[in-house]
Design brief:
This protein has nine helices and 18 strands. By secondary structure, the protein is α+β, with helices and mostly antiparallel strands. It has three domains: 115 residues, 3-Layer(aba) Sandwich (Rossmann fold), CATH 3.40.50; 114 residues, ATP-grasp fold, B domain (D-amino Acid Aminotransferase, Chain A, domain 1); 65 residues, Dna Ligase, domain 1. The strands form five sheets. The protein has a five-stranded antiparallel beta sheet with strand order 16-15-14-17-18, sandwiched between helices. It has a four-stranded parallel beta sheet with strand order 2-1-6-7, covered by helices on one side. It has a four-stranded antiparallel beta sheet with strand order 8-13-9-12, with helices on one face. Helix 1 crosses helix 9. The longest helix is centred in the first third of the chain and has 20 residues. The model has no long low-confidence stretch (mean pLDDT 90).
């Protein structure tokens, strides 16, 4: 097994989901080199040269050394930013961080191996307007959606929908306020809430509210699909299940054939081997696409349902899924 090459894992030091994958690869005796971008350049040393059309060299920390020519795959799990010496000026730090991104990051992207997910394609796929367009092209059912900074356009959209709307941020909004950790989740708006002058301050995303029988977290890995139904037992969780994990009930479910086909078409068009999809299932049984996270968490689904998602990820990284 060792002759087939190593799996490079790039992740933060505290990442329980990543731990699941590393433990499974260790169980399979697949060599793993785990590092965080935060270790570079103080505790992670890179030396590589181009020869014969390939990069050769090493990536080393105080514990072990990785032969770059033997990397079979990369598991990219939200590594944190490089850290530099305390005494560097702000200007020098900015230059060093840019060089690290384009030099260290660029070298890793040049390795001829599998990535889960490929960072560039994953970054592109984070754009919700792109997701929604590709989902519709792939045959998935997408709620009516408006992106605007025009309060009057929001009012007109509300009148067209003639029912509740959902406002949701384009990206994760988390921070602290008055000493407390806070996050912005989806919110239900009534037509009377619009127009609102704050809409003019930046881009906003509004969607028609989709009635829910339950929701689904569908995880796709290398062509394999794992779907779990989610019932949120609180008012806040019913609007956005991420706001109240404690209220959840989970079960394994089977997506319709056309939904599974649409999911795989969507991933192919986005160039991704992995996606954590969120769907609403209406009382009539229609599956409506909400979003896909190209590096979304899955550990809580596996723990609750027993779906073998970690094994599927390791099959992909090991190359045994072909």
């Amino acid at each position: 097994m060792a002759d087939a090459g190593q799996v490079l894992v790039l992740a933060g030091h505290f990442d329980p989901t990543c731990d699941l994958v590393v433990e499974e690869l260790n169980r399979r005796a697949v060599p793993v080199f785990r590092a965080d971008m935060a270790e570079f350049p103080l505790r992670l040393v890179l030396a590589a040269s181009l020869s014969g059309g390939r990069w050769h060299g090493t990536l080393a920390n105080e514990r072990r050394t990785l032969d770059l020519a033997r990397v079979r795959s990369v598991f990219y799990r939200r590594p944190t930013r490089p850290r530099f010496p305390e005494g560097m000026s702000r200007e020098a730090r900015k230059v060093a961080e840019t060089e690290a991104r384009w030099g260290f990051g660029g070298l890793l992207s040049a390795l001829p191996c599998r990535w889960l997910p490929p960072p560039g394609k994953a970054a592109d796929a984070e754009y919700k307007p792109l997701q929604l367009r590709v989902a519709a092209e792939a045959g998935l059912s997408v709620p009516r959606t408006l992106v605007t900074n025009d309060p009057d356009a929001a009012r007109d959209f509300a009148e067209e929908v003639d029912g509740p709307l959902v406002y949701k941020p384009f990206f994760h909004v988390r921070g602290t306020a008055e000493g407390r950790t806070v996050a912005v989740y989806a919110n239900v708006l009534r037509p009377g809430d619009l127009p609102h002058p704050d809409i003019a301050t930046t881009a906003h995303l509004f969607q028609e509210w989709v009635p829910k029988a339950y929701e689904v977290r569908l995880t796709a890995v290398g062509g394999r699909i794992f779907a779990a139904g989610i019932h949120a037992g609180s008012d806040a969780g019913h609007v956005d299940w991420r706001s109240d994990y404690a209220s959840h009930t989970y079960w394994v479910c089977e997506p319709p054939v056309d939904v599974s086909a649409g999911v795989l078409r969507m991933l192919a068009r986005l160039g991704l081997p992995y996606g954590a999809f969120d769907f609403v299932v209406t009382p009539e049984g229609e599956w409506r696409f909400l979003e896909v996270n190209p590096s979304g968490q899955y550990g809580f689904i596996e723990q609750a349902t027993g779906l073998p998602i970690t094994a599927a990820i390791c099959d992909y990284l090991e190359g045994t899924d072909r």
